[in-house]
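Working notes for the structural subgroup meeting. M.R. asked for a predicted model of this chain before we commit to crystallization trials. I am recording the input and output together here so anyone reviewing the notebook later can reproduce the run.

Input as submitted:
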Amino acid sequence: FVPVNCAAIPEQLMESVLFGHEKGAFTGALQARRGHFEEAHGGTIFLDEIGDMALELQAKILRVLQDRVVQPIGGKRQIKVDVRILAATHQDLEQMVRAGRFREDLYYRLRELEIVLPPLRERIEDLEMLCGRFLAEAAEELGHAQAQQLHPDAMARLRRHPFRGNVRELRHVLKGAALRADGPRRHPAALPYPSG
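Returned structure, recorded in token form:
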């Protein structure tokens, strides 16, 4: 499983990161490097935030989907790859297709199986389970003996919050609450949201 955050890698480097390059292919290419598609051979590559990928690179991804081969930058050889591609985005790809910012053919190839995950504010019933998970993660990361629990008033405050930052906002808020921990239970005052 090879995860790739398409929004975090500069556009100029993305092709080399995905497909690899040969020694001397460009300034600074002092040795050959395998790309993520080749590393994921026999497994899965996860293209997170694919909506941020440049149109030119989208065409090359489409070729990998169709032909199951990659060609490293500066190379003549084609490398067969057997990969499952998972892609995710927070953007409206249909709207991007209409605006000419995302390739329609790639959009339909990626939609073989689509899972639409509504924002947290539309699935508030998941809040308690997510809180437990994120508090456990925070406890492990911070070296706490056990995870904090949320006071019922704190949970009620979270249920009223619109979570414009979605699940990442919740994770961030709970980690901050765990950092300020002074006991086994998080009280409403530990949360940055107003009580109203």
